[in-house]
């Protein structure tokens, strides 16, 4: 019952985000760090990639250009985000979407060579369960790539928690790595991915106290945790 209540709460919130245009905002804000992650991934043309917390499918569409002989699937708790993703990607049969949660992925065992998640994992109600599911749907030799900006090692994002209307996990990089190791991933690493985009002269958002805090936040970088399924 608790799982259902949590899922409904998340769906309601992210449906509201879809209506407010937040997915399009995330695409523009996160492009610098996702571009760097894609370079590190070195995707092969025939890879099968799952994006957990795909929003309106913006990152799935980026990934699809790297895997012309493969496939991409996006999963999101928000049915409105999925509807928009399907509409925006209708012309590409190699990209599909489904409503679901990280803790219960709608995919068979070993279906993917890569699983990615961008700015979503800290909303998972149970990170350990989410990573167990990630491990399950990966084929042997496949890898998981979790990229987040909200993590305890970066003190300049902690204030975000006061603006969230849903629970969010503020974990240390070491804690994320330990979760990866406990579910069976090997060669687990964590690193920082810097956002080298220009910083505005004026801070117009609510997420940072001022421009200087935004600069300090960007200097810390996003956290990328990776692991391989043996």
How would you describe this protein?
This protein is α/β, with parallel strands linked by helices. It has a single domain, classed as Vaccinia Virus protein VP39 (Rossmann fold, 3-Layer(aba) Sandwich). The protein has 7 helices and 7 strands. The chain has helices at 2-19, 22-41, 58-64, 79-88, 127-137, 173-183, 211-220; strands at residues 48-52, 71-76, 95-99, 112-118, 138-148, 186-193, 222-228. α1 packs across α4 (79-88) and α5 (127-137) crosses α6 (173-183). The model has no long low-confidence stretch (mean pLDDT 93).
In brief:
By secondary structure, the chain is of the alpha/beta class. Helices cover 38% and strands 21% of the residues. The chain has 7 helices and 7 strands.
């Amino acid at each position: 019952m608790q799982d259902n209540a949590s899922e409904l709460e998340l769906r309601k919130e992210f449906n509201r985000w879809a209506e407010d245009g937040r997915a399009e905002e995330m695409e523009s804000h996160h492009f610098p760090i996702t571009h760097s992650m894609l370079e590190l991934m070195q995707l092969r043309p025939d890879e099968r990639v799952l994006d957990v917390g795909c929003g309106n499918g913006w990152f799935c569409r980026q990934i699809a250009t790297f895997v012309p002989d493969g496939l991409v699937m996006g999963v999101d708790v928000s049915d409105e985000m999925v509807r928009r993703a399907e509409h925006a990607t209708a012309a590409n049969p190699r990209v599909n979407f489904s409503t679901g949660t990280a803790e219960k992925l709608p995919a068979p065992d070993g279906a993917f060579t890569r699983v990615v998640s961008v700015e979503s994992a800290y909303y998972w109600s149970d990170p350990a369960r989410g990573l167990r599911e990630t491990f399950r749907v990966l084929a042997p030799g496949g890898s998981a790539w979790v990229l987040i900006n909200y993590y305890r090692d970066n003190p300049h994002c902690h204030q975000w928690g006061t603006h969230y209307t849903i629970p969010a996990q503020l974990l240390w990089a070491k804690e994320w790595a330990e979760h990866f190791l406990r579910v069976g991933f090997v060669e687990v690493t964590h690193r920082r991915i810097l956002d080298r985009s220009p910083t505005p002269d004026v801070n117009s958002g609510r997420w940072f106290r001022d421009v200087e805090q935004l600069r300090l936040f960007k200097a810390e970088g996003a956290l990328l945790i990776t692991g391989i399924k043996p």
